[in-house]
Amino acid sequence: MEEKTKRTVVIPGEVLAKGEDYLPGEGTEKIGKEIIAIKYGLSEEANKLVKVIPLSGVYQPRKGNIIIGKVENITFYGWAIDIDSAEGAFLPLQEIPGYVDKDGLREIFDIGEMVVAKILDVNGRGIDLTTKSRGLGRIDEGLIVKVNSSKVPRIIGKEGSMISLIKEGSGCEVTVGQNGLIWIKGDKVEDELLAKGAINFITEKSFSSGLTGEVEEWFKKEKGGNK
Amino acid sequence: MAKDFKRPDGRGVEDIRPMKAEVGVVPNADGSAMFSFGNTIAIAAVYGPKKMHPQHQQDPKKGTLRCNYNMISFSVTDRIRPGPSRRSTEISKITEWALEPVLMIKNYQNMVIDVHINIIQADASTRCAGINAAALALAHAGIPMRDIVSSVSIGKLDKQLVVDVDKDEEDWEEGEGATDIPITMTSSERLTHIQLDGKISNDELKQVLELAKKATKKVYEVQKKALKESLEVKE
Amino acid sequence: METPNSTGDRIAQYLKDGKRFDGRKPGEFREIFVETGVSKKAEGSARVRIGKTEVIVGVKMDVGAPYPDSPNKGNLMVTSELLPLSSSRFESGPPKFPAIELGRLVDRGIRESKFVDFKKLCIKEGEKVWTVFVDIYTINHDGNLLDAAAIGALVALKTAKIPKYDGETGKVIYGEYGDEMMPVSKEIPIVTTVHRIGDSILVDPTLEEEDISEARVTIGGSCEGKVFSMQKGDSGDLSIEEMHKILELSENVRKEVFSKIDKFFK
Lengths: 227, 235, 266
Description:
The complex is a heterotrimer of chains A (about 230), B (about 240) and C (about 270). Chain B has 4 helices and 9 strands, in the order ββββαβαββαββα. Chain B has about 240 residues and is of the alpha+beta class. In chain C, the strands form 3 sheets. In chain C, strands 1, 2, 3, 4, 5 and 6 form a 6-stranded mixed sheet that branches. In chain C, strands 10-9-11-12 form a 4-stranded antiparallel sheet, with helices on both faces. In chain C, strands 7-8 form a two-stranded antiparallel ribbon. At the B-C interface, strand 3 and strand 5 of B face strand 3 and strand 6 of C.
């Protein structure tokens, strides 16, 4: 059984746990017998693993993440994509589905266009992307909303419960990039704004439990008033 | 002696002016904060980590902290002409050195973390307020750091040591005049910054360090509270 | 990151129906918040927030020689800094065109309206006059910095006190004030900018809206319908009909903006 201690806000330098058998997880460091927070966030302990969940900060790219980015530059080998992280990302020619003419890069993704891609690898050279799977590729139309990447787990929810609620409540397709960019596409602009409003509502709320219920209430109120 | 000494604003010799701190004051920034000692008000905003430009300033071995300290024209009685000065350039560097020892940015090769500090209202100890705001803004931005740093000025007015020097005290002329010593420490009492202008003995300096230990802890409590009570985490 | 094209398209689409993302009508401003006393060292100062956009403005005064072509008038100097603190889009360094333009547009709004009576700022004709410095600093950029700066300059000037001046030494005694306030006229200039996006005319754009604005006209005028200054910016063009709409909208909006700051003018 997993034991979780109540989450508390911690600041860098705070001692989170003392003892030989505690292990330093994400956002912490072990110095001697003490686990120290090295980031501002919520501390959490489960089975002696102590970690700090950041509340803010620039997106930390991870292999396998789905992200949304903007085409910044086109080279002979592919597209340089801005994904709002410290490091730049690159989508090589070989990682596009189907055959691509070396001279036809601009027609596939032009500078300034938005794309949904998956992170293949994060290494010394940078971040490598692919659009070879389903659901990836160019964003043709819709709203792009930007939230801090630390809020993304909240927007997706446990096993996708929150994102399903947003989709059902607004009737829109919603694609969440782990880097905090979210693509909303609906039949009507009103529906898209409803999804956007729900996302803003969630990001403004604290890390309270029962947020799913609150969001359900929010949708009822918003849709009830708009008839 | 100490108890009879009259500071211009009536404070006790070890009293810091009322402090205020708040994070999130610049919504656009990755992290931001304001910090004030009485009438000295500083705001700081952090943008980064991000790719360093210009490219020739990139450090392939570690990330770079880049601080930019500036006083706004109407923060002081004699208007400051807009633009950098030698003083603000020096304080920018001092601020970097005060913060770097606690930052863990070795893994941000070729990247930069920009910290912009502006003094809105000046009543001495501006660099200390700036460092305090910058430390908060860096934590608020989620930058990995071993500790928060806290800064305060210790002064010697003629022969009397005082904590948190204001403008009237900076201009003290009686006897040996004013000695101004801004100091920055981590919460585990490690010194990251010290400067001195004036005239003081080594023995007195040891007392200064003791006073600084106590005073920076008080500053730390204010900084800690600002981060913990930030709106974003209200339960 | 600049506003994505897809979002820009949506903004324009919505505007065709007279709607905006935050529920405002095209002629509506976001919530305006104004307070004075930003810095006790300034002769006058104001903080203005329009939505999430924030700007601070300070007034400082000094005594010096008048300009040769106005020997009996005080001087005005408006500068503006787009602080890198306020947006990742701004860099450190000497002011570039947007900062210079902002300063000049606010300057025009004050100068041409004759809001400040510069003749009353003359101490000795041909020799000593007051120079009024108006310094604008951006704190958070979410669109429409210009209108925020103009409101700030107006309120900072209205509430500014004139420092004491020692005629014998020729020195200003800063920090000491008599009862003298900045000499201002009763005709109050409000500066607002109207934008064109596609066929829609709107005021107070957010940053996203400003990114897709094609043309804009900054107009300084009174609530009684007089226009003192005007400048069209950006590379789009405007039809005569659109200009009529812009003039009308600007006049209406001035009244709305003034109602948010009238407490400083009572």
